[in-house]
Specification:
This protein is mainly alpha-helical and 685 residues long. Among the domains are: 133 residues, no CATH class; 45 residues, no CATH class. The chain is 62% helix and 7% strand. The protein has 20 helices and 12 strands. The strands form 6 sheets. It has a two-stranded antiparallel sheet. A hairpin with a 2-residue loop joins strand 5 and strand 6. Helix 11 crosses helix 19.
Amino acid sequence: RHCTDIICCVIFIVVILGYIALGVVAWVHGDPRKVVYPTDSYGQFCGQKHTLNENKTILFYFNILKCASPMVLINLQCPTTQLCISKCPDRFATYIDVQASYRYRPDQWNYFKQFCKPGFNNPRKSVAQVLRDEDCPSMIIPSRPFLKRCFPDFSTKNGVLTVANQTTFKDGRGKTRNVTDLREAANGINNVLDARSIGMKIFEDYAISWYWILIALFIAMMLSLLFLVLLRFTAGVLFWIFIFGVIGIIGYGIWHCYWEYDHLKGIPGSDLTVYDIGFQTDFNVYLQLRQTWLAFMIILCGVEIIIILMLIFLRNRIRIAIALLKEGSRAIGYIMSTLFYPIVTFLLIAICISYWAVTAVFLATSGEPVYKVMANQTLCKYANLTCDPETFNTTNVTKLCPGAQCAFAFYGGESLYHKYIFIFQLANAFVFLWLVNFAIALGQCTLAGAFASYYWAYRKPADIPLWPLFSSFGRAIRYHTGSLAFGALILAIVQLIRVILEYLDHKLKGTQNSFTRFLLCCLKCCFWCLEKFLKFINRNAYIMIAIYGKNFCTSAKEAFFLLMRNVVRVAVLDKVTDFLLFLGKILVAGGVGVLAFFFFTQRIPVFAQEVPILNYYWVPLLTVIIGSYLVAHGFFSVYAMCVDTLFLCFCEDLERNDGSTAKPYFMSASLHRILGKKKLSPKKA
């Protein structure tokens, strides 16, 4: 053994160190609180602990009517003062009315001033000056919190939109407005917050259901291990039960079609043809025709005959696949630690996902508060320019653009770091894909080395080395990190291109350019095929690396030509093996998914009180189903890797050896008999 693909190994290590540095820089500049908490006009978080706004968790808009302005969609910010408050207003009131009655109704002023700027307590100040300086809102309306923001408390009475049973209200500027104006303003904000609201709800669902999601994934892990143990003893039985089950179901379908065909005999109109009745939107119309059931019966008969013929002509190939599964079971029986190696791969991938997600969040929340001039007048030349809230009132902007204000817009900056955040996000995604593919490659090479040590043991199990899994893992890390990183790099590049194509397709979905859509569709299809091909080549290249210790390119070439020389066996063996393991994945994911569905929809009385209250129950449900499938995939990949490794070893065994005393076969006697080769030479003691 010697180190392979050293240059790629060095580059890989340098990239990992750079990735760590990127995470540290993002952690220094980022602040996830910017995603969780709403931000007022001063750039302060609402509800943040150990601050003046600790008990003020809700954002209040001074003049929500301004939120109907087009500036909301342009600047992603409502052009009105926004404050953090503890409770939304529960009544109609205007500043003019409150100021006029504060002498004999001080309770109204005390209630109204909590929606004014902090520290303002001067009801004697003229109304014009208060509204100009936006010390207080011109009005308050009954509201309720939604997404930690105060929105009008709409209701419908006799088909009429109302707020607190009123259809009109005073805007505090001498006008009487209709509540439909509030609806337009609320919709203006909702257009900005729509995507953010869905994300927040999903985040909240994960925050209160993560414990149950982990329990479901643990159950999936136990079911996967149980299925692997059972597959060791029942691989052939499961396959033939399924095959004969499919034949039986199709046979029943043929009988049912014939019964329906015979039952419709003599019924008026049943002898019409599909051509006679033409196209009908109601499919039940076709089911009243004898011709329909005759067509179904002919199709099912054709499928039944094809399946039976395939079983007859491919019976030896199927026996080989089942034999290799059983041989893999024996190998796993001697190397039981391989069953638990997917946990290592799962932990490595979980670390990669966690690091990527945290880094992405910190990158997205990097930067200092940026303030911009918010003016409701489209002719204001200062609109959307950056400003300083501390000196804004001393400038001429408020005179030239009445009503303009310096409000918080977003988090960003003008430094080199902030200018290239998008590039850093792309780099974060690319290195994440590279590391995930490397973790998978490391697992495949480690398992292949362990199972290859079983196959090439002359006397099984006496010649199997001690701790074969750990020895294989050490060899892969010590000698072949560069080769594994090389294969993972190629795959990561293709996957990143696919991600970019999907992003472009999503952005251009509304365009009417047919050529662009056609070109994108072709590119997506080509790169999908390329990714599948590379995964197949990489997998077998890692097996050859584990066996012979050569570099990635040489191993990939030798594996490819070896498989091409046995292409028929490869096709049948892979499909039969993948089919059996796919059934196991569906069984595990489906079983856990059904259990999760009954749990999260409160249909299990025993756990009804334990079910968390969710915005979308499908969020944890889909997570559980996808996670269970991935967990099952991780465990069943042990069997798949075992069978693929034994098959390549077997092909090499046949090409290098002839069964003579000088060149004896290394395959087991049972596999040798099924493959119909020459009698094994006696093995020396």
